[in-house]
């Protein structure tokens, strides 16, 4: 595997020097995509938010700014991402509004029905069995809670397919695949959104 391929492989679970470089690029590189996805959220006032696959922590910070009365739990399976997210959101952590922890989305160490909003930006590509993981997200959401998925790939674009070949275990899902998995996991209402200019895909699911 070439150096560039090794670098892109760090999107799955950042580790080592290349992982640190990847985390450094995540906050800025995904900002426009994340902000577009957040703009699709309905008029809600979540008291408790869980940000799954928090990466460099930028999106956790944006959610805390968007919902100033909320508390947010940020989770990632990469120790480097947890470290960086803690640094990025140090003020919110100090104020008691944010907790960052290492975790596995297929087996969340979180109580049932504790969250009003769950988010996943550029991460479900790597989840180990999306139906099982989506069922875990559904479990920790309260009835009526919202789950927002935001992907740069809609599962049909050439760039997404190219990265699937480079990054072991990566799967770019289509709107239909995500919708079916969410409904099978227990979500009652699912709606997909497309950017129009880019192959960006956002899916909102309500428990």
Architecture overview:
- This protein has 207 residues and is α/β, with parallel strands linked by helices.
- The chain has a single domain, classed as Vaccinia Virus protein VP39 (Rossmann fold, 3-Layer(aba) Sandwich), CATH 3.40.50.150.
- The protein has helices spanning 3-9, 16-29, 31-39, 58-66, 79-88, 90-94, 130-140, 158-166, 175-185; strands at residues 48-52, 71-76, 98-102, 115-121, 141-151, 189-194, 201-206.
- The chain has a seven-stranded mixed beta sheet, sandwiched between helices.
Question: What are the main properties of this structure?
Answer:
9 helices, Rossmann fold, seven-stranded mixed β-sheet, alpha/beta, 207 residues
> What number of domains?
1
Broad CATH class: Alpha Beta
CATH topology: Rossmann fold
Unreliable spans: none
Gross CATH architecture? 3-Layer(aba) Sandwich
Q: What Rg do the Cα atoms give?
A: 16 Å
**Mean pLDDT, nearest integer?**
89
Strand content: 15-25%
What's the tally of helices?
9
**N-to-C terminal Cα separation, in Å?**
42 Å
What would the principal axes of the Cα set say about the shape? globular
Structural class: alpha/beta
């Amino acid at each position: 595997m070439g150096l560039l391929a090794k670098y892109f492989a760090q999107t799955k679970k950042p580790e080592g020097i290349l992982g640190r470089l990847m985390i450094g690029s995540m906050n800025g590189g995904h900002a426009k995509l994340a902000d577009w996805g957040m703009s699709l959220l309905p008029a809600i006032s979540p008291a408790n938010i869980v940000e799954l696959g928090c990466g460099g922590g930028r999106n956790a910070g944006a959610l805390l700014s968007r919902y100033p009365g909320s508390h947010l739990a940020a989770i990632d399976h990469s120790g480097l991402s947890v470290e960086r997210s803690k640094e990025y959101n140090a003020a919110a952590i100090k104020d008691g509004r944010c907790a960052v922890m290492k975790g596995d989305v297929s087996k969340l160490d979180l109580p049932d029905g504790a969250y009003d909003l769950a988010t996943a930006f550029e991460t479900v590509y790597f989840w180990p069995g999306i139906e099982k993981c989506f069922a875990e997200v559904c479990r920790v959401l309260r009835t009526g809670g919202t789950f927002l998925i935001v992907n740069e790939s809609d599962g049909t674009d050439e760039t997404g397919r190219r990265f699937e070949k480079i990054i072991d275990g990566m799967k770019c899902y289509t709107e239909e695949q995500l919708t079916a998995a969410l409904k099978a996991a227990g979500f009652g209402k699912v709606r997909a959104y497309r950017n129009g200019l880019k192959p960006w895909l956002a899916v909102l699911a309500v428990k």
